[in-house]
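ESCALATION

Customer reports they have been waiting on this structure for their group meeting. Please prioritize. Original submission:
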Amino acid sequence: MDDEHEILRGAYRDFNARNLDAVLARMTKDVEWPNGWEGGFVYGQDGVRDYWTRQWAALDPHVEPVEIHKLEDGRFAVKVHQVVHDREHNLLFDGFVRHVYRLRGGLIVRMDIEPTDAK
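Update from on-call: job pushed to the front of the queue and completed.
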């Protein structure tokens, strides 16, 4: 399980560093990713690249994993502390969110956003 934890922690490090290519390399080509900003999902690495490029132009999110644990169905739940500012440095959100990942072959296949009280 240490490998999965490092995959996920590394993805957050890469995201916070805005190292887009490195974080995309941690995903399958057909990844399914939630569009937490506008709603719905984006699909594939190109969809995630476009989404984050647009998001980072308007917002400055920082997401730190606090807890990672494996769920009974094999997915991984990550409780994160998320802080989001707009480009004028106004605080838009500061709180905890739960990200749930499905991994395959050491890569992220899908991520979902759930309430922090989800089981």
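Sent to customer with the following note: Residues 42 and 48 are 6 Å apart (CA to CA).
Escalation resolved.
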